[in-house]
Amino acid sequence: MNNRVLVSPSELAAMINREPMVLIDTRDAASYAEAHLPGAVNIHEIFTYLATTTPEGLVALRDTFAQAFAKAGLSGRETALVYEQSMTTGFGQSCRGYVLLRYLGYPRDKIRILHGGYNAWRNAGLPSHQ
């Protein structure tokens, strides 16, 4: 079992072909529309959603993201791969996705982050959906 959180573009390309995955793009809708990883879903709210730390705020946070991740196709059996633009420009939004998934109880061994983000994927010459 691989417990590494960060995966390279080439590792991700191999993983896509051998296991069920949901690719989650945390960038804004315009960047997603311009180009994204094949089959990725856009959940920019990972970055923009603000919650209060009251009991009600935490319930709202849990409900919001449980619904968003379920709608994206996550059931706990698939590997969730979260990515942003480059990991130096997204203020850690892919890492926030990891934390949200763990907060919701998603299996730790089923969450990955694309090291270097979309830029690394593109720079590796891998296909994008446009």
UniProtKB/TrEMBL annotation:
UniProt keyword Transferase, yes or no: yes
Protein name as it appears in the record: Rhodanese-like protein
Listed SMART domains: RHOD
Domain Rhodanese as annotated: residue spans: 17-130
UniProt GO molecular function: thiosulfate-cyanide sulfurtransferase activity
Record lineage: Bacteria, Pseudomonadati, Pseudomonadota, Gammaproteobacteria, Pseudomonadales
Entry keywords, A to Z: Repeat, Transferase
Source organism of the structure: Pseudomonas knackmussii (strain DSM 6978 / CCUG 54928 / LMG 23759 / B13)
Record-linked InterPro entries: Rhodanese-like_dom, Rhodanese-like_dom_sf, Thiosulphate_STrfase_CS, TST/MPST-like
PROSITE patterns: RHODANESE_1, RHODANESE_3
PANTHER family, alphabetized: SULFURTRANSFERASE (PTHR11364:SF27), THIOSULFATE SULFERTANSFERASE (PTHR11364)
